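Moderator note: this is an archived Q&A kept for reference. The question asked for a predicted structure of one protein chain; the sequence and the answer are reproduced below.
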Amino acid sequence: MNKFKPMKKTFYWLLAIVITIVAVIYQRKTGPTYDKKLSVNVNDTRYEVKLVRSIEIGSNTEVKLAIDDKTIAARLFYKQFMSDDPYQSVDFEYKEKPVDSYLMNKVFKITEDKGWFAPVPEQPAAGKIQYYFEVTDSKGTKMYMNKTPVVIRFKGAVPSVVLAPHIFFMFFAMLLGNLAGIMAIFKHQRYKFYTTITLITLLIGGMILGPIVQLYAFGEAWAGVPFAWDLTDNKTLVAFIFWILAVAMNRKKERPVFTIVASIVMLIIYSIPHSMYGSQLDPETGEIIQGWIQLLII
């Protein structure tokens, strides 16, 4: 029977990888800071545009419509998120932006980015702008997203030396957590080892690197309990507590149920889209608060 043990372990790893990949894909498709995809019909041609919902401070603060039709006109309407201010407007301008391409130490000018662009005013970290737009073609003028405006959140730049390991450890923790939970279900003797490793990776990625990322992006190292209600921070804290409990309860005696529960809780928490209830700047006080970002309509 021993010859089947490696096969079982391989199966556990494959199942954990599949679950993790599915969770990652779901999070990317539902996250409120990823570009919103929208279908736009212009002069009987359908275009799939991506509407920006996250802008890094100091970068290009423009909304782009990837519509390759120079005969139309388009206008952007924007204001501060959830404010009583009236909407301001600005015309989109068609641009073909040359991008430097390098080949054999020579620089070539090529056109990669073209479409209609409209600027929005840059906001401080965690500041937000809501917007909608209209397009006028040969058939007339049509409004898009005016009933459910798109929201842009501004953030500071996070160094890749901090962001990359944070992302790695967070998703590696999820993979190991899934593996530990699966092994605990089948009572594999190594589940205790992976329970401990999951806690360590979550500590590094979520409780150490996470606040550093938050500090760079929004000027607040921790915006969760007991100081505020940032969901990203709070869900990391909840997962961390459950894995501490799982390690503690399995230290002297095998109690796989605690690892199973911790694994399920982590999977649920990771299924909550990143930044769904994220940091938000109060424009009146200048303080970082939290605000709900609607997922289905924004």
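Archived answer notes: Residues 291-298 have pLDDT under 50 and may be disordered.
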